[in-house]
Amino acid sequence: FLYDNLTALENLEFYGKLYSVQDLKERTHHVLRQVGLHHRRFDLVRTFSRGMLQRLTIARAILHNPDLFLLDEPFTGLDQHATEMLIGLLETLKAQGKTILLTTHDLHIGLRLSDQYMILERQQVVETGSASGLTEDALREKYFSLISSGEAGQ
Predict the structure, then answer these.
(1) Got the DSSP string for 80-133?
(2) Which domains occur in the chain, in start order?
(3) What is the rounded distance in angstroms from the CA atom of residue 26 to the CA atom of residue 116?
(4) Among 25-29, 38-42, 103-107, whose mean pLDDT is lowest?
(5) Burial of 15 (0-12, 13-18, 19+ CB in 10 A)
(6) What is the pTM assigned to this prediction?
(7) Element at 70 (helix H, strand E)
(8) How far apart are CA 61 and CA 5, in angstroms?
(9) Which of 50, 53, 75, 139 is the most exposed place for a label (fewest CB within 10 A)?
């Protein structure tokens, strides 16, 4: 949740205080640069586009440097440039040993970022496995065979 009547910087400062983030001023500026919004830090959130709101939400998520990230469709509303920025950020977090649980309908991005995959249908896990060596076409075929075979949801 973001507060429309606060600036991007004020939103992050608010959440940073809730999480007792050390060196809050430096950290807020750092994460705003990471998501490409530092130049808009003094703008009210209500003036932001959907993609900018998504990027600010991601900045809020990484602000307190957690070990686990739960990201539900984080690429929604992002243009190609912002998508590549977020992919790079997630790859950096992964390289730092962070755990990222990501939901996405974009198989290309999902496989690019994943070590493991899980297929869900109707809130039920129907398949899990290693993403290593798995192609987008193979995963798509696996998905449709599970869904159309009636195995899903059982």
Answers:
(1) HHHHHHHHHHHHHHHHTT-EEEEE-S-HHHHHHH-SEEEEEETTEEEEEEE-TT
(2) 8-102 (3.40.50.300), 115-154 (no CATH)
(3) 34
(4) 103-107
(5) buried
(6) 0.83
(7) strand 68-72
(8) 20
(9) 50
